[in-house]
């Protein structure tokens, strides 16, 4: 499909070493201007680069704040090549008419496998025994070493990852409790608890799988840690802000918690080679990993294809299906039509003013699809018109009060 704005002129900025599969997906779709960086960019460089980009792809490090978006004058879409989207100011993007896409489950399995492996390792005291052997020590003993079979796993956040872990844990003979703010259908024999506190009090192992939101920030502090069973294990592969990390270090030092596995931290290095600082460093009963819960080749490959394909689809066809901050619209292509996109503030009267333009020009609308969210409306219009008329229509559409963006796609 030939687009009005040539694909060769669309600049794609890919940061944080997203998978080569993303680059291939863009190239195969005809996009040639791809700027690729292995790391997240410092804010000043990010602002400089984003000001030239039409599409940006990031992972969990790059902070796309309202301030950064102010400089993104050409930007049409954001791709988060991961699950979490908390690093993007989604409201700011929505106000500017910029859809944000992610990969909601391409790395689910990778996180679930890591978490279960860590649970087994910690229940056996393997991190401590491993560290001792590396120091030349030898302590062959069953003391403090347990099977996971028959133990209770508490899952906080029973979403894609939480449910997958629940199913796998039951296959290992564990009992699963879960806590979620939404009513969730239990899989297998998993049981919801009445409260977070109840889950903490009853579980041998607690694993966190909530997104970063105002409600989950500092969800686990000293009182919650104190509520956990003596010797219990805490796993966090969600977001670093969910736990008060100093309180966790205190609880581990005091011997109340038996161990922890932490993949995400309140402050994380920008990229490989940068120093990692944490109060948990040096504790043998803590598995520390550099935010690699979703970092398997399988997951990264799938994420690259999935998110790049969503960005290409939006850029080529206007489809916003599965955008996280945007009205979801998808239309098949109509032969002999030109496609216009109109993104506007969701205020009364915009659609009627759009349609007045078409009827005044005596133009036949072949298809039209409107979706709204509280603050935003998005309409895709296929019209039977020649190129010059379509460009003129675009100028007139842009002049309608409340318009955020218009594009002629083809
Ligand atoms: N470590 C990694 O590499 C890695 C990889 C993937 C995802 N993640 C993180 O894991 C999070 C969860 O991923 P997912 O795919 O399971 O997401 P999901 O959206 O499928 O599930 C999240 C669940 O948490 C629940 N929830 C939200 N707020 C809550 C609260 N205050 N209390 C209890 N439950 C609450 C939701 O209702 C939902 O069921 C992501 O948001 C991301 O931040 C980390
Ligand atoms: O949100 C996610 O999917 C994970 O935190 C992974 O983030 P990453 O792509 O930066 O590894």
Automatic annotation (TrEMBL):
Pathway membership: Amino-acid biosynthesis; L-serine biosynthesis; L-serine from 3-phospho-D-glycerate: step 1/3
EC numbers for this chain: 1.1.1.399, 1.1.1.95
Keyword annotations from UniProtKB, A to Z: NAD, Oxidoreductase
Enzyme class at the top of the EC tree: oxidoreductase
Annotated catalysed reactions: (2R)-3-phosphoglycerate + NAD(+) = 3-phosphooxypyruvate + NADH + H(+); (R)-2-hydroxyglutarate + NAD(+) = 2-oxoglutarate + NADH + H(+)
Gene3D superfamilies, alphabetized: 3.30.70.260, NAD(P)-binding Rossmann-like Domain (3.40.50.720)
Occurrences of domain ACT (ranges): 339-410
Cross-referenced PROSITE patterns: ACT, D_2_HYDROXYACID_DH_1, D_2_HYDROXYACID_DH_3
InterPro entries (alphabetical): ACT-like_dom_sf, ACT_dom, AHAS_small-like_ACT, D-iso_2-hydroxyacid_DH_PdxB, D-isomer_2_OHA_DH_cat_dom, D-isomer_DH_CS, D-isomer_DH_CS1, D-isomer_DH_NAD-bd
Keyword field contains Cytoplasm: no
UniProt GO BP: L-serine biosynthetic process
A GO molecular function held by the record: NAD binding
Keyword Oxidoreductase annotated: yes
Function recorded in the entry: Catalyzes the reversible oxidation of 3-phospho-D-glycerate to 3-phosphonooxypyruvate, the first step of the phosphorylated L-serine biosynthesis pathway. Also catalyzes the reversible oxidation of 2-hydroxyglutarate to 2-oxoglutarate.
Family: Belongs to the D-isomer specific 2-hydroxyacid dehydrogenase family.
Family matches, as PANTHER family: D-ISOMER SPECIFIC 2-HYDROXYACID DEHYDROGENASE CATALYTIC DOMAIN-CONTAINING PROTEIN-RELATED, D-ISOMER SPECIFIC 2-HYDROXYACID DEHYDROGENASE FAMILY PROTEIN (AFU_ORTHOLOGUE AFUA_1G13630)
Entry protein name: D-3-phosphoglycerate dehydrogenase
């Amino acid at each position: 499909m030939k687009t009005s704005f040539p694909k060769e002129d669309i600049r794609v900025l890919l940061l944080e070493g997203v998978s080569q599969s993303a680059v291939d997906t863009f190239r195969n779709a005809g996009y040639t201007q791809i700027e690729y960086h292995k790391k997240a960019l410092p804010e000043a460089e990010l602002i400089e680069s984003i000001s030239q980009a039409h599409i940006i792809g990031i992972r969990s490090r790059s902070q796309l704040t309202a301030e950064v978006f102010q400089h993104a004058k050409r930007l049409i879409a954001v791709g988060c090549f991961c699950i979490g989207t908390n690093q993007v100011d989604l409201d700011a993007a929505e106000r500017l008419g910029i859809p944000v896409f992610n990969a909601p489950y391409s790395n689910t399995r990778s996180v679930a496998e890591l978490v279960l492996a860590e649970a087994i390792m910690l229940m056996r005291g393997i991190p401590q025994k491993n560290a001792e052997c590396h120091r030349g020590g030898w302590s062959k003993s069953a003391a403090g070493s347990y099977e996971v079979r028959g133990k209770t796993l508490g899952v906080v956040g029973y979403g894609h990852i939480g449910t997958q872990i629940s199913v796998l844990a039951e296959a290992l003979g564990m009992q699963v409790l879960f806590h979620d703010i939404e009513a969730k259908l239990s899989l297998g024999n998993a049981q919801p608890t009445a409260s977070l506190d109840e889950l903490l009090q009853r579980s041998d192992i607690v694993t966190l799988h909530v997104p970063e939101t105002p409600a989950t920030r500092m969800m686990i502090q000293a009182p919650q840690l104190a509520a956990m069973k003596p010797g219990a294990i805490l796993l966090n592969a969600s977001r670093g802000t969910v736990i008060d990390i100093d309180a966790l270090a205190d609880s581990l030092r005091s011997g109340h918690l038996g161990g922890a596995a932490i993949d995400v931290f309140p402050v994380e290095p920008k990229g490989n080679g940068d120093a990692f600082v944490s109060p948990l460093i040096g504790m043998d009963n803590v598995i520390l990993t550099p935010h690699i819960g979703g970092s398997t080749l399988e997951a990264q490959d799938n994420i690259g294809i999935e998110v790049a394909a969503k960005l290409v689809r939006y850029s080529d066809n206007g489809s916003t299906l599965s955008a996280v901050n945007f009205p979801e619209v998808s239309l098949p292509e109509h032969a002999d039509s030109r496609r216009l996109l109109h993104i506007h503030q969701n205020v009364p009267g915009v659609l009627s003013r759009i349609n007045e333009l078409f009827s005044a020009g005596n133009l036949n609308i072949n298809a039209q699809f409107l979706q709204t969210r509280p603050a935003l409306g998005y309409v895709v219009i296929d019209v039977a018109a020649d190129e010059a008329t379509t460009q003129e229509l675009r100028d007139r559409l842009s002049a309608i009060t409340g318009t955020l963006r218009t594009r002629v796609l083809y």
